[in-house]
Write a structure and sequence with these properties.
The complex is a heterodimer of chains A (about 325) and B (about 675).
Chain A lengths: L1 H27 L5 H11 L5 H14 L6 H15 L4 E2 L4 E2 H36 L4 H15 L2 H16 L18 H38 L2 H8 L4 H13 L1 H25 L4 H11 L2 H29 L1 H4 L2
Antiparallel strand pairs in A: 1-2
Helix pairs in contact in A: 1-13, 2-3, 5-6, 5-8, 5-11, 5-13, 6-8, 7-8, 7-11, 8-10, 8-11, 11-12, 11-13, 12-13
Chain B lengths: L1 H27 L6 H4 E3 L9 H8 L6 H4 L5 E3 L14 E6 L19 H5 L4 E2 L12 E2 L2 E6 L5 E6 L13 H12 L14 E2 L2 E2 L1 E6 L2 E5 L22 H4 L12 H5 L15 E7 L3 E6 L5 E3 L10 E6 L4 H9 L4 E4 L2 H12 L5 E16 L10 H11 L1 H10 L2 H8 L5 E3 L23 H10 L24 E7 L3 H17 L2 E7 L1 H10 L4 E5 L36 H15 L3 H17 L3 E14 L17 H4 L25 H4 L1
Parallel strand pairs in B: 2-14, 3-15, 19-20, 19-21
Antiparallel strand pairs in B: 1-2, 4-5, 6-7, 7-11, 8-9, 10-11, 12-13, 13-15, 16-22, 17-21, 17-22, 18-22
Classes of the chains: A mainly alpha (about 325), B alpha+beta (about 675).
Chain lengths: ~325, ~675
């Protein structure tokens, strides 16, 4: 087992190196850089002529080392991350990238984890119900909703929620708190206010995840329920409840566990879109803004972090699978 | 007899109609003022202040109001107010969709737009007042008045004496000199203006300090009056020299320019400002809150220190549209309506009973036009490019395009209703110096368009409905024109979608090329486009964007840039336009400028310098709580709404006031230094 874990650990190092190179190239791909944004602003909002603005941008590129060759910029970036934990400077927020990201990570991880928890629990429960009541009205309704959940994009649901809340219900749409609670100290009032806001992104982001989990759970459980050992259990006279929850469900969970490794980045992506539309102060809107203004170190570092989460998640999922399924570790 | 009666009845009806129409017209007319009806600088017998500042004085935290104000403060006159002097209280809630990067605005650092800069910065002159002034000129602000020398080469400016920064430090000529020499002119500081604007006849304008409150500008040419317009907000927002000098490499050799630019980071609160409100609280992506500046140097005629509204609340959002949504939900107090797609929706909401906001009709200044690339050298890579540019420079071709556009249909397709309409001339009708007599239009006439194209020897040789080139390097090919659109300008995308079938009808294939705005900027710079569908807001205030109006710099106008080695073949009418723009810089009278602008508009529209498509009215949505909102205040003219409205004079009756987010908080700078 430990040999398997070490092997997997070693393999993730080259993966991360390749990812960091790809990330760096990807964020450099669009023409221009943050200084082009500055240049455009100086021209359109200020009164600088193009030639003057170009000179200012060149000066800034020199100041921030953006005039050096790409590979040198990459090595400096990686060296600072590894040796100092310094992810670079965010031009837009005028402070270290790490500060900008960490300040937003709390809400991001909280919302993403809650979405994950809700979608897993609800998805599994509905999946079990659907599988054990195959082709009943309840199963058909759940299946229909699952297809809707999988096919409607999150941003569209978020837009509909915004419209209904702002126009039909007449409450402040978006955000995590009502205006009067933003500055209030923590207390029951503020907590209840948070609850009245946070369910919206959780429902929107969790909807697709729930739908997916439900479909996977339903399919697996149906497969397992048709296996001979379940027939044996039933013929031994075990209660149906015991057959399903003790013998069938644990064996149907494997693909869901394997999927856990990918789920966090998936949830963060969903959260990213919903937060952007719903105006929630998480990493989502920040990342979008960083891409739009080509605040490259900020965008790159966030992408890199997502990749690390994906790799680590997969590693953990592999380990858990190896732990519960001996066939894998004897490979 | 019968005929006599009917003639009499008819004439009575006509007279009544004329009277009704003229009274309606008067009602909708914007009242105009002399400067001293809006603002004067004088001592008043006594002064008043808001309750929380009075408490702070009692506690000994700040000096009494008389000591905080200048000996002769700026008095916002009752004659210029629509509801008269007001009372203290309330909070102005709005939305900012751009991160706050810091407070060193003189180094181009962004406070977050959406009114943040207007709330905290002050400039030498006030061009936000100009739309209400009879002469339409910049109004006084930190400079109370100014005079030209007889030869026009020296401008003496008198600064408000005894005004203080929000930390109590006196504002003097030293601050103006620091802003000019060490920020605007210093090439290492990315300020909003550069030496180019301030260079006349090859010489950079000199600024001399006579004493703490008198400065003199020295020019190489006589009467460069246009420079007054560059002494306004953002272009010349005065920076606090006493705060920034220790960070500037010129005064502190240990510092770098990078350190200077980032000297005042966003969380370094409160920053030292001259404006009516001071930022005191910032949570990134959530909220920015400003409180009234205890040292603000403006009062009303009863002596009450301004502003009336004690708090400014900016909700931080990821997109500007949040402001419109929050206005509808009643949690935001004001927005500018600039997305045509939302016009009808927001209007409907405003008309609902109990709606918290109303719409203030603005001016017809939203301008959507086609720019045709006239450059023979910039972005021309091969023979076909050159052939295309020659075609775009051909007046008959531009005329054919203009005749092909059914502008009314485009406007109706975008937004049904009265907020968009045809723009046949290329100059928006709400623009300053607009002269309806001067503009020429080539309106919808597809038959004429076809005739013109036939005259240019285009023929549909392959019978596919699209004309073909009959000679030159493109011989035999379809007449295809690419139009560039920046993806964030959604209205432009919709307009081009409407244009495609109209062009097709006369035999031109229009291919839309939608690009990210950063890429679009790069293509503009490189001159790599054929047509450009864009919003030309700068035409609303042409005197403040003179260089965009004619080929006076290598990069202007966008659609006729100079190529390598500054090579550019001006069209015959452009030569006269260059002369007009040069003359405008030094023209002192409005009548003189009007005459020049009329000629410019005639040349521009007669020769289809740009091809206008539609114009829109730039409306403001604002809460019904606020008083002293000037009649007809524009969302955007020379300045944005916040300055046009004179926000320090806005107030709310007591029963309609909202509770503050930070009640009782008084701006104090000493705490920061501890």
């Amino acid at each position: 087992m430990s040999r398997y874990v070490i092997q997997r650990l070693l393999m993730s190092i080259p993966v991360l190196i390749i990812i960091s190179i790809v990330v760096f190239i990807v964020i450099q791909l669009p023409p221009g850089d943050y200084m082009s944004t500055v240049q455009a602003q100086l021209q359109s909002l200020g009164g600088l002529t193009e030639d003057e603005a170009v000179k200012v941008a060149e000066q800034l590129r020199h100041t921030y080392g953006l005039d050096k060759p790409l590979y040198i910029q990459y090595f400096v970036w990686i060296k600072n991350i590894l040796t100092k934990g310094d992810f670079g400077f965010s031009f837009q927020y005028r402070k270290p990238v790490a500060d900008v990201i960490w300040e937003r990570m709390g809400w991001t991880i909280l919302i993403a984890s809650l979405c994950h928890l809700v979608s897993t629990l609800v998805g599994i429960v509905i999946g079990i119900y659907s599988a054990t009541h195959q082709y009943s009205i309840g199963d058909n309704v759940a299946t229909f909703l699952a297809f809707v959940g999988l096919s409607v994009p999150g941003f569209f649901l978020a837009l509909i929620a915004m419209y209904i809340l702002a126009v039909k219900v007449g409450v402040e749409a978006g955000g995590l708190f009502s205006q009067r609670y933003i500055l209030a100290p923590w207390g029951w009032g503020k907590f209840l206010d948070l609850l009245s806001h946070i369910w919206i992104p959780i429902v929107i982001v969790g909807f697709a995840g729930t739908a997916r989990n439900m479909r996977v759970m339903r399919g697996n459980l149906l497969d397992v329920l048709n296996l001979p050992y379940v027939l044996t259990a039933r013929s031994k006279g075990l209660k149906e409840r015991e057959v399903i929850f003790k013998h069938a469900v644990p064996n149907a969970l494997h693909p869901l566990i394997m999927y856990q490794g990918m789920v966090l980045p998936f949830m963060i992506q969903g959260e990213l879109i919903a937060s952007t539309v719903l105006n929630i102060p998480t990493a989502g809107p920040m990342f979008l803004n960083a891409i739009n203004t080509q605040d490259m170190y900020l965008a790159g570092s966030f992408l890199l972090l997502l990749a690390v989460v994906l790799v680590v998640g997969n590693l953990l999922a592999d380990i858990v699978l190896a732990w519960i399924d001996p066939r894998i570790r004897y490979d | 007899m019968k005929r006599k009666w009917s003639v009499l009845t008819l004439s009575i009806i006509v007279v009544v109609l004329v009277i009704v129409a003229s009274s309606l017209a008067q009602e909708s007319e914007i009242p105009k003022f002399e400067v001293d009806e809006i603002i004067q600088y004088k001592a008043l017998p006594s002064y008043g202040e808001s309750p929380e500042l009075a408490e702070a004085v009692k506690r000994g935290e700040i000096p009494p109001v008389e000591e905080r104000l200048p000996a002769k403060p700026a008095v916002v006159m009752t004659s210029g107010m629509s509801d008269g002097p007001g009372i203290y209280g309330d909070v102005w809630r709005t939305v900012s969709a751009v991160p706050t990067a810091g407070w060193n605005w003189a180094a181009g650092v962004i406070g977050g737009w959406f009114g943040i800069e207007e709330a905290m910065q002050e400039a030498l002159v006030n061009t936000g007042m100009s739309w209400r002034l009879k002469d339409g000129e910049p109004g006084p602000n930190l400079a109370t008045h100014w005079e030209w020398s007889e030869d026009g080469k020296t401008l003496t400016m008198y600064l408000v004496e005894g005004a203080k920064w929000s930390d109590g430090h006196p504002f003097t000529a030293e601050d103006v000199l620091f802003t000019y020499y060490d920020c605007i002119l210093d090439p290492n500081v990315p300020s909003w203006q550069g030496a180019g604007t301030w260079t006349l006849g090859g010489k950079v304008v000199e600024l001399e300090k006579v004493d703490d409150y008198i400065i003199k500008w020295h020019f190489a040419e006589a009467f460069p009056v246009y420079l007054l317009w560059y002494m306004d907000l953002l272009d010349f927002s005065v920076a606090p020299a006493h705060v920034l000098k220790p960070y500037h490499p010129k005064y502190n050799p240990e510092k770098t320019y990078e350190e200077f630019i980032n000297a005042l980071p966003p969380n370094d609160l409160p920053p030292v400002v001259l404006g009516a409100w001071v930022p005191v609280y910032l949570k990134e992506d959530e909220a920015l809150i400003m409180k009234r500046n205890p040292y603000y140097w403006k009062v009303d005629e009863t002596g009450k220190q301004l502003p009336y509204i004690g708090e400014y609340y900016f909700k931080k959002a990821s997109a500007g549209v949040q402001r419109d949504l929050d206005l509808i939900a009643g949690t935001c107090d004001q927005t500018h309506l600039e997305t045509p797609g939302l016009f009808t929706f927001v209007n409907e909401q405003a008309r609902l009973p109990g709606s918290p906001f109303k719409i203030i009709p603005g001016m017809w200044t939203l301008t959507f036009s086609l720019e045709s690339n006239l450059s023979l050298y910039q972005g021309v890579k091969n023979e076909t490019d050159l052939e295309m540019r020659k075609l775009l420079r051909n007046f008959d071709f531009r005329k054919a395009i203009s005749h092909a556009i059914d502008r009314e249909a485009v406007a109706r397709m975008l937004v049904p209703g009265p907020m968009l309409r045809a723009l046949p001339s290329g100059f928006p009708s709400g623009a300053d110096y607009y002269d309806p007599e001067a503009v020429v239009s080539y309106s919808y006439d597809p038959e004429k368009s076809k005739e013109l194209l036939a005259g240019l020897e285009f023929k549909d040789t392959d019978g596919d409905g699209i004309l073909n080139w009959t000679s030159g390097p493109l011989q035999g090919q379809n007449l295809t024109v690419a139009v560039k659109i920046h993806e964030d300008q959604t209205a432009c995308v919709d307009i081009v979608e409407a244009l495609v079938p109209m062009f097709e009808k006369v035999g031109i294939r229009l291919t839309p090329k939608i690009v990210k705005s950063t890429v679009g900027q790069a293509l503009d710079t490189a001159g790599e486009f054929e047509l450009n569908m864009t919003r030309q807001d700068f035409l609303a205030s042409p005197y403040t964007s003179l260089t965009s109006l004619a080929p006076v710099t290598p990069s202007s106008p966008n659609w006729h840039r100079a190529g390598p080695g500054e090579k550019r073949d001006l069209l015959p009418f452009e030569e006269r336009m260059v002369e007009i723009v040069e003359a405008l810089k030094y023209e002192r009278t409005r009548e003189g400028r009007q005459e020049l602008f009329s000629e410019l508009q005639k040349l521009w529209t007669e020769n289809l310098y740009t091809i206008g498509v539609i114009e829109g009215i730039y409306n403001t949505g604002i809460t019904k709580r606020f008083r002293n909102i000037p009649i007809g205040v524009p969302a955007r003219f020379h300045q944005w709404f916040h300055l046009n409205v004179m926000q320090e004079q806005v107030w709310t009756p007591e029963e309609e006031q909202l509770p503050e987010f930070l009640p009782g908080v008084v701006v104090r700078h000493e705490e920061k230094q501890k």
